[in-house]
Amino acid sequence: MLGESYSILKEDVRSFLINFAVHVKEQNVVEIENDYQIQFPKLTDQYFGSTRWPSAEVIAQLLDADPLFLMLYNELYYRHVYAHVSTSLSVEDMIQSYVNYCSLFNALIKADKPVSLNLPYQWLWDIIDEFIYQFQKFSNFRSRQKHKPEDETQLRENPRIWSIHSVLNVLYSLVEKSSINEQLSYYAQQGNVHQYLFVLPTFALYCCETTRLTVFCDLALTPFVS
Q1: CA 123, 100, 134, 218: dihedral to nearest 10 degrees?
Q2: Are 108 and 210 in contact (CB under 8 A)?
Q3: Looking only at Cα atoms, what is the longest distance across the chain?
Q4: pLDDT < 70 regions, the chain
Q5: Rounded to whole angstroms, what are the CA distances from 5 to 29, 51, 88?
Q6: Under 8 Å CB-to-CB from 110, ≥6 apart: which residues?
Q7: Nearest 5 degrees, angle CA 99-CA 17-CA 106?
C-alpha cells in the first residue's frame, strides 16, 4: 500500500489504529491487550487474511503517533506478512523487519531513562519469539544454493542482516542492560524458591520495559547456549 492514502482504509480499521495508538501512549495495558489479542486478529481475518496491512508510511498519515508506536506497528505488520502473506515475502521485507527490530530494541537499550512503554506479557514474549523465528527463516533462505539475481545482490550488500552475531548481540545487550541476571542471582541466594517465583512478577511491574522484555529474552537465548 505504499504511496496510497489512509483514506482508503475501512472506517473500523481506521478507528482501531487511532485507538491502538492512544492506548499505547497512555500505557493502558488492558486495552492494549484487547487490541493485540482480539481486535488485531479479528480485523486481520475480516480484511487482511491474504493481504498486507497498510504500511507504516500510510499509518503515519493517519496518526499523530510517535516513532515507538510505529516500530511496534511495524513489528505486527511484518509478523503478519511472514504468517499470512508469505508468498509475497521479499528479501527487502526481511531486511526491513530486521532493521525495525533493531530500532525497537535500540530504543530500549540506549535509553538514558526508563521508556514510557507498558506492553502485555504475551506481546513481549511474542516479540522475542518472532525475532528468533525470523532469524531462523532468513538463515534457511540465505543457505539456499540458488537465489534470484536481485536477491543475491541484496544478500551480498547486507552481510550483517540477520547474522547470528548481530542477533546474539541484540539479545545479550538486552539482558545486560536490564541487569536481570543480577536480580535473578539475588533472589536465588535467598534460598526460598516460592519467594523467588512470587517476587518476579511484582518486580517486573515496576521496572522499565527493557527489564520485562529481557526476562523472556533470557529464556529465548537457551537454544543458542545450551
Answers
A1: -50
A2: yes
A3: 59
A4: 1-7, 178-184, 186-187, 190-226
A5: 30, 17, 21
A6: none
A7: 25
List pLDDT tens digits, range 153-192. Answer: 999 999 999 998 898 888 888 777 766 666 667 667 765 5
